Amino acid sequence: MDIKLIIKELENIKRGLPKEAQKIAKKYKEKILDYIREKQLFEKGIDGKGRRLIDFEPYSSFTIVIKKQKGQPYDRVTLHDSRRFVDGMDLIFTDQNALGFFSRDAKTPELIQRYGADIFTLTVDNRKEIDEKIFEANLVEWVLKQIENKILK
Predict the structure, then answer these.
(1) Mean pLDDT of 14-24
(2) Residue pLDDT, tens place only, 71-121
(3) Cβ neighbours for 68, distance < 8 A, ≥ 6 positions apart
(4) Which member of 13, 36, 73, 135 has the lowest number of beta carbons within 10 Å of its beta carbon?
């Protein structure tokens, strides 16, 4: 294949990367959301900056008793009590090739007011893990398939 055609095909592959990243975000949406829902909120009770949510507004003694009775964590705020907030979480892949997180739960504005918008932000470590394990791995595989099918055929 002529070098000009190879370069043209590589440029086409490069232009296709954002669309493929969007497909990957859609395919792995639940896994990506679990980084916030489970790894940050439930397991650690932290926002994307690593701040403990319980430090914003500690539980009252009454709430601790209720949480103990329900078998729920009481040493951290998980935002999992009714599950409406975490079950309503979703993501979008923006035009700037970034992930945006939100929840459709009616109490979302109240929770943002109380705990800050960083409840929808990934920690640096979780962001890095998603980039490496989900996006990088899948994008490299896609690029190699494209090269194989369009250039090396």
Answers:
(1) 97
(2) 999 999 999 988 999 999 999 999 899 999 999 999 999 999 999 999 999
(3) 74
(4) 73
Question: Could you give the count of Cα atoms lying within 13 Å of 55 in the half-sphere of its Cβ?
Answer: 8
Tokens 């709430």 belong to residue: 63
Per-residue pLDDT reduced to its tens digit, 119-152: 999 999 999 999 999 999 999 999 999 999 999 8
Distance CA(150)–CA(37), nearest Å, equals: 40
Asked if 14 and 139 touch (Cβ cutoff 8 Å), the reply is no
- Spatial contact of 36 and 45, defined as CB atoms under 8 Å apart: no
Token pair for residue 76? 């951290």
Structure tokens at 150: 């369009």
Length of the chain counted residue by residue = 153
Q: Is the pLDDT of residue 153 over 80?
A: no
Cβ atoms of 18 and 97 closer than 8 Å: yes
Residue with token string 């099918």: 149
Using the CB atoms, write b or e for 54-71: b if 16+ within 10 Å: beeeeeeeeeeeebeeee
First to last CA, the chain: 10
Angle at the Cα of 27 from the Cα atoms of 23 and 33, rounded to 5 degrees: 115
